[in-house]
Structure formats: structure tokens, C-alpha cells
Amino acid sequence: MSEPVPYLDLRAQLKPLRAEIDAAIARTLDNCSFCLGPDVAQFEKDFAVFCGAQHALGFNSGTSALHVAMRLLGVGPGDEVITTPYTFIATSWAISYCGAKPVYVDIDDATFNLDPNLIERAITPRTKAVLPVHLYGQPFDVDAVAAICRKHKLPFVEDAAQAHGAKFKGKTVGSLGDIACFSFYPAKNLGACGEGGALVTNNAALAARAKALREHGSTVRYHHDEVGYNYRLEGIQGAVLGVKLKHLGRWTRERQRVADRYAELLGDTPLKLPVVAAGNESAWHLYTVRHPRREELKKFLDANGIGNAVHYPLPLHLQKVYAPLGHQPGDFPVAEKAARECLSLPMFPELTDAQIQRVAAVVKDFFRS
């Protein structure tokens, strides 16, 4: 068998940065700044600039950032938040943590993102916000979502956990909604050496309250104005993210190179390849293809040493935890079809052309067989 191709190779990313990361961590250790601290503060400033936003606040996870975003918008028991059934469950957790109800809307068949044409019919007097996801690094239709939200006087939050550096009509995601939330889970385009997240906004009042909520609801030590959380980003993670952020633009360009090469090599196969909406730039967090014979293809790739992954094989509306919502198979057919057909191929900036060609060759062998 030829050399295996990994689905993700974090060692390849970390190796050339190791000295710089080690020095940054050593500085944090020397300063004993373990919870928040100067490295986190500097990263927050730099990440806000990267997103084209006024404020960025570090959190211990993207999930925590989303939870606080819902709190900032006043989401509570009895409220509803419109979102997608086809994403990681943390998006819905943020709604559930507040005692509110996730109201699902089906996705667009081409982009996997929430279909804005279906949002208005899901709005009720209980609707408090809209929470779409820039899935797989592909921006959702911000203009369409924003127009609906303006019409109905609803805020919307960008779940940008997979979309660091993606652009919608030339504007970087993270600065387009009332609030945006990012994850820095290690496998993300910008990943910590552990957990991490960020809340980004242009609203100074929301930023100030988010800063208090992430630190036990306190602005003055030992004085607590409301129920808060221990959601602080660790100093070491801020140091690591500060180093990595300097390389994110180059990594995104390399991901685009990989995506372009896949499109060139796989364009004549029966696979349905990813589509980037006109005027947008995907961050290419994942390169997700689809085919009705997904399970057979996956087994063939596994047998031939090609890393791959199935994301979201069970849509959120069919998860046991959300059975009380009363959904049945067929309620969101586009999401359910994506869950049956989608398969992610190796995608990371260090992927070589030889590796890309190897992946494509094995995929073509599958269809020839």
C-alpha cells in the first residue's frame, strides 16, 4: 500500500512553530498569568482587528461564547431561537442552556447552511434571535438573514466556529452580525493547544457585559451583579493563539490551494463537490463531498489508508436529547440527506500535492471498481 494520507496532521502545523510557541508559553509561565492575563489581552486585540470588529473576548470554549451570546440577547425560558439542524450540537446547547427552544429550519442543498428562504415561516411571537452557522468554513447568506432580522426586529448571531478568516462579499465573518462566536478547538483553522473560544462584537455595551459574565458576573472583584460563569480563556492558550494568528492568513491560502486542486482532480467523478457562493471566500475548514454510496466510499478510503470523516450523521432534530421537540424523520429532508451522503476528505494547509493526488486516485479507483 502507498503511504497513508492522514485526515488531519496537527504535528505538521506545530513543528515549524514549536520554538515560537515554546517561547510564548515560557513567557506566560514566567509571568504566572494563567487565567486571562496579558497574552490573552493582546490576542483579543489582534483577533478583533483580524475580524474587522471593535471587540473580541477570549472564552474557555466556543460553546461558552455561544451561551453568553444568548444571555446577552436576553434569551430565556419560553423563548425560541431559529437555527440549523445540521451542525455540531454546541450551537443548540447554547439555546438550551438558557432554557429556550431551538427552532430548526432546513438547510440549503448546495452550501449546507441554513436556508434563509425558510426563516420567516419559523418566526413566532416567541422568537428571540436567529443563530445560523458558517458551516465547513462557507459563509451563510448574511445579507438575506440580516434583511429578515431587520424586518422582524430580531438580532442574529454568527456561529463562526468553523470559519476563521472566511469572507462574505469581501467582509470577514465575525463582524457581520450582532455577535459572532468562534471556537479554537485544536482541529479548527485557528486552534489552541487545548480548548478555547471567542465572542466578537461591535457593540461596546454587549462586550462589557460579556466580559463580566465570563468572570463570574463580576466587574469589581468579589462584587457580583448577576449570575455569571467561569468561562475565562487560559493565559497559555492566549499565548499559543497569538503565535498562530500570525500564520492564519497563509494557512487559509494553502487551504484554498488544496480545495482548488481537489476540484481539478475530482471534477469528473460522480461526487458532488463543495460549492462556494458567488462573491464569498470559504475558510475551507473541511472539504466535504457527497454521494449516495457514502458508506461504501468511506470503507474503501479506510482500506486504502486515506483519512476521512463523517460529520453530523444524525441531524440535531433526530438526536435523543431533543426528542421532546417532537420531530420525526422527514421533517428536514435536506439536512437528513446531507447527513446520509456527506464525507470529508483530508484538508489541512500542509497537505502536499502528492497527497492530494493520492486521495483523488483512490476516489477514482472506487468509482472504477
Into how many domains do the coordinates divide?
2
CATH level 1 class label of the largest domain: Alpha Beta
Query: Considering DSSP H and I runs of 4 or more, what fraction of the residues is helical?
Result: 25-40%
Individual helix count: 12
* Largest β-sheet summary: 4 strands, mixed
Radius of gyration: 21 Å
Give the averaged pLDDT, no decimals. 96
Order of helices and strands, N to C? HHHEHEHEEHEEEEEHEEHHEEHHEH
Number of strands: 14
Uncertain parts: none
Shape, per Cα inertia axes: globular
The CATH architecture of the largest domain comes to 3-Layer(aba) Sandwich
Q: Could you tell me how far the N terminus lies from the C terminus, measured between alpha carbons in angstroms?
A: 17 Å
Order of strands in the sheet with the most strands?
1-9-8-5
Structural class: alpha/beta
**CATH superfamily heading of the largest domain:** Type I PLP-dependent aspartate aminotransferase-like (Major domain)
Strand content: 5-15%
CATH topology group of the largest domain: Aspartate Aminotransferase, domain 2
Structure notes:
The chain has twelve helices and 14 strands. It is an alpha/beta fold. It folds into two domains: 10-106 and 113-245, Aspartate Aminotransferase, domain 2 (3-Layer(aba) Sandwich), CATH 3.40.640; 248-368, Aspartate Aminotransferase, domain 1, CATH 3.90.1150.10. A four-stranded mixed sheet has the order 1-9-8-5. A three-stranded parallel sheet has the order 3-2-4, with helices on one face. Strand 6 (167-168) and strand 7 form a beta hairpin. Helix 2 runs antiparallel to helix 8 (235-245), helix 3 runs parallel beside helix 8 and helix 4 (62-72) packs across helix 5. The longest helix is centred in the last third of the chain and has 19 residues, at 248-266. The chain is globular, with a radius of gyration of 21 Å.
